[in-house]
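Inverse folding, one chain.
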């Protein structure tokens, strides 16, 4: 074992010599002396000084203390990306409409009466057609129904002193535009022209007034025409009635009150210069009311029926 140790040390020395041989600045004598000193040292060394080491008992190799603690490894701090908050998308709640069952309706024990049937109109056909020129020397005094004769009936060049809402109470104060003379009141018109026929139909707009007051004003109007138109025939006309459905529910505009006015107007006729005519004969339904088939508002004829009215006037006058 000792020999092996000496051999090892010799190898070390030889290695050192080889190393130093590489440096030219080291003297060769010094190298040789160093080797010789090393060999002398090895020859004088007593194996007992090594602690009586035998081949069977070898000292445990010295073990360098092992330090388990390694220098801490410092890693770069983790880069944390900012959290991206995605707003939650909330779908709108779909609310189903409530299911409502239709109410159960029991059939009535007594069925309601069917709506009244509209009687078909009876068109008036004159024995001979009446030309509009036949009214050129006539004067019409009245309200909106008389205006309908002017607009739709075909009364030629007749003068018309009429306006919407006209009454016997306003007949002498109302200013109206008459085609032949311009704006005028009734008295100057009667004094300035002579007519062969004068038609008067008033009464429905004043129907809410007292019958006695209507009689007084109506009589004064007829007398003024007689006074200013000595050669004219005056036709006092019955008021056109209203439909039965309106008459039944209206406390003022109804056929009962209209008939009372018409009855009075009829008393003014003398059969010679003053004559009474009743247009209801061509518009009446089976109940004696204004036929619903002739109107859309219960009061006025539709435009085409004003022509039949004018044809009837030309026949009876």
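Residues assigned per position:
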């Amino acid at each position: 074992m000792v020999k092996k140790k000496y051999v090892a040390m010799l190898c070390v020395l030889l290695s050192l010599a080889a190393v130093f041989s590489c440096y030219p600045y080291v003297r060769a004598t010094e190298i040789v002396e160093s080797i010789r000193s090393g060999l002398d040292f090895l020859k004088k060394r007593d194996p007992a000084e090594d602690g009586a080491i035998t081949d069977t008992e070898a000292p445990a190799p010295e073990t360098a203390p092992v330090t388990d603690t390694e220098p801490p490894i410092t890693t770069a701090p983790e880069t944390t990306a900012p959290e991206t908050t995605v707003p939650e998308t909330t779908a709108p709640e779909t609310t189903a409409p409530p299911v409502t069952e239709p109410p159960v309706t029991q059939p009535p024990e007594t069925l309601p009466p069917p709506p009244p049937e509209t009687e078909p109109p009876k068109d008036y056909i004159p024995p001979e057609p009446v030309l509009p020129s036949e009214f050129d020397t006539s004067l019409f005094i009245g309200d909106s129904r008389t205006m309908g004769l002017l607009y739709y009936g075909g009364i030629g060049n007749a003068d018309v002193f009429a306006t919407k809402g006209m009454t016997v109470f306003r007949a002498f104060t109302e200013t109206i535009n008459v085609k032949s003379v311009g704006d005028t009141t009734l008295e100057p018109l009667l004094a300035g022209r002579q007519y062969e026929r004068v038609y008067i139909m008033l009464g429905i707009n004043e129907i809410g007034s007292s019958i006695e007051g209507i009689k007084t004003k109506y009589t004064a109007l007829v007398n003024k025409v007689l006074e200013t138109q000595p050669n004219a025939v005056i036709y006092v006309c019955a008021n056109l009635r209203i439909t039965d459905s309106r008459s039944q529910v209206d406390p003022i505009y109804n056929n009962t009150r209209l008939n009372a006015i018409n009855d009075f107007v009829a008393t003014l006729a003398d059969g010679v210069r003053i004559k009474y005519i009743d247009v209801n004969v061509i518009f009446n339904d089976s109940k004696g009311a204004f036929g619903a088939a002739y109107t859309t508002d219960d009061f006025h004829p539709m435009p085409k029926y004003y022509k039949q009215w004018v044809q009837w006037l030309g026949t009876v006058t």
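The radius of gyration is 69 Å. The first helix runs from residue 2 to 20.
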